[in-house]
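[Meeting: bench + compute handoff]

Bench side (C.D.) handed over the final construct sequence. Compute side (W.E.) agreed to return the predicted structure before the next meeting so the bench team could plan truncations. Sequence as handed over:
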Amino acid sequence: MKVAFLYNSPVGDGGWNHAHELARLKLGRAFPSVKTLALASVSREDAPDVMENLIRQGVRALFATDAGFSAAAARLAGQHPEVMFFVCGGRYRAPNVISYGGKIHQPAYLSGILAASMSVRQRLGFLGEAADPAAVRALNAFVLGARSVRPAIAVEAAWCDGPPEQAARLVRKFSGNGVDVYFNGIRHPSPMQVAMDHGMFAIGYATDLSRYASERLLTSAIYDWSVFYAEAIRALQAGTLPPGSRYQGLETGVTALGTISPLVPVKVVQQVKAREKALKEGRLQVFSGPIHDASGQLRVARGTSASETQLDVMDWLLPGIRIIAPTRLESSDRLRVFIVQSYGNDDVCGIPQEIGIREVLRHRFGKRLDVRVHYMNTKTVNSSPGRMRTEAARVLKKIRAFAPQLVFTLDDNAFREVGLQLVGQPFPVVFSGLNGQPRDYHRAVPFLDRQGLPVRNVTGVYEKLHLQAALNVMREAMPDLRHVVALLDRTPTGQAIRKQLQIEMRGAANGIRLSIRSVATMQEYLREIHAINASPEVQAVYPLVLSIKNKNNQSIGPHETLRTYLRHCRKPGIPLNFSFAQLGLFGGASVDFAAMGQQAGNMGVKLLQHHDIRTLPIESAERSVITFNTRRAAMLGIEIPHTLLTSAELYTSMPLLKTSGSASAGAKGTPCKK
C-alpha cells in the first residue's frame, strides 16, 4: 500500500507539521508493507495538481494535514472513488472522505491547572492563530482548568496567524502586561523561547519539545497522530473503513499532556494526573454546566455537558477573558467575513458552497481573512417559523458583534431571515443558492432598482436549476421519457422551487411533461412514491423534498428524505445537486454547488476590493454538471449510452442505500474525469 501526506509548510517547524511527520515516520516503522510519501510546503492552490500526481503514482490514501486542503479533496473525491482522502479538521462529507482531529481542549484544560498553580502574578496569556472553533475551545478549556484552581485568575488572549516575529511582538506585549505563564497555541514554537527569555513559564502546543527546552517549559498540549494513522491503515488493509468523522482525545492517546517540568510541585502533578485519569475514563468532562458566555448567555446547562455539535461550532468566550488589541502593524489588513447557512454543518448543498467561497477568498487574500460561519439548521432542528426567527436573532447579534466587512447567506432561509435584515447596513451581503425570485424578496425589503439591479448593499447568485438541460440529458439516457414528476415540500423554499420549475419549463419544446406534487409529511411522501411506482405513465422523478415532518411532528432534512426515496422508489431520480447523484440518485444535469459558491466568492472578492455594488448585478448559477450513478442505473436495469457517459462525472457509491448483494454485484462503473 502506498499512502501520502501533504503539509502546508516545512515539516521541521517543531510544531503542528512536525507532529504529523513524527507520526508518519512511526507509521513507516510499524507497517513495513506500507510505503509513505511526504510533500511539504504544498499551497492550497497547488494541492489538486499535487494530489492528482500522487494518485497517478499509485497512492491509495491521502492524508491532508490542514483544513485548507478540504477544497482539493472535495474536488477530487468524486473523480477517484478508489482513493481515500483524510482531511485534518475538514468538513466535507463524501463516501471516500474522512475528517479527523484531536480533542486538544482536554490537555489544554490540564495545562490550565498547571499554569494557575505556577503563576505568581495570577495573570496568564494565551496566543491562538485565529478565533475559529478549535482555538476557542482550547482557550476556554485552558481558562476552565486555570479557574478550577484559582477562580479569580486573570487571562489575556490574542490571535495571530502571521509569521513568528508578529507572534513574538504579542508575547512581549503579554510580558509588559504582567503575564507570567504563556500558552503557545499556534503552530510554530519559537514564541515560547521569547516568553522564557522574558521570565515567563511557557506551555507548548502540538509537539513535546521538553528535551530541547529549559525547565521553564512547564508542559505541552500535544498530538500523537500515529495512533489515528495506525488505526486508519489497519482499517484500510482490512477494508473496514466507513466514512465520517474521527475526533479522538486522551482516551485513545491521539491527544496527551507532554512531559511536566521538574519545577512543578509533586502535589500539583498528582492533581493534574488525577484529572487526566478522570478525563480518560469519562468521569470528568471539560465543558460541564452551568457555563455562561461573556454576554451572560447560558451555554451549557447545569447537570449537562457540551455536546459534540456544541463543541464543533463553539464561537463564544468565557467571561473575564481580555482580548488584547494587536499593534497597528499586525492588524492593518485583516478582512472579516461572516457566512450564514440555512443548513447544518454537514449538508450536501451548503458545505460545497462554503468550500467554493472559502477557496476563492483564500486564493485572493490568504491569511488576511478571518472567516466565521453559523449553521442555522433550518431544515431540521429550527424548521418552524418561530425557531427560525429566534435563530436568526442569534446570528444577527453575532454579526453585529463581529462587524464583518462582508456577509454571505447560503439558501433562502438564511437570506430571508438574516440577509434582508441587513439591507442598508454598512457592509455588503452576497447571497448564494437563492431559489426564491430576487424581485419577490425586494417587495418585502427593497434593495433593487426598476431594472432589477442592486442599489443598496445586496447582490448574489440565483440558483438556476438547469431543468431543461437535466431533461435533455435524461432523454438521451431514456429515449422513451415522456413524463417526469417533481416532488416538493411545502416549506417556503419548496414553494420557491415550484416557481423556479414553472419558469424554467416555459416554452419547453422537448415533449416532456413535468408534473409538480407537494408533500408536508413522511406519510404523504411515501404515498406519492408508491403512486409513482404504480404508474406506467411516469418514467422519472425529480425529488426535491428537503424538509418534511415525521409521525412525531419532527422535521426531517434532505439526508433522510433522500434515503427514503432511494429505499422505496423504483423510478430513476434526477439530482438537484451533483452530490445527490454521488449519494445514490440516477443522474442527469444538475447544479454544481461548489462552482456556485465560487461564483458568489468572486463577487465577494470584488466587493472587498471596494467595487461599486451597482456594477455587480445578480447572476444565475452558471455551471451545470452531468452526473450519473452507475450502480443505481444497474439496479434499475438502465444502460446509459457510452456517448453520454464520456461527458459525465460518474459515481458508484450509494451510502444512503443498503442494497442486496446481487444488486451490488451487478453495479459497475468507471469514474472518468470530466
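W.E. noted at the follow-up: The first strand starts at residue 2 and ends at 6. C.D. will use this when planning the next construct.
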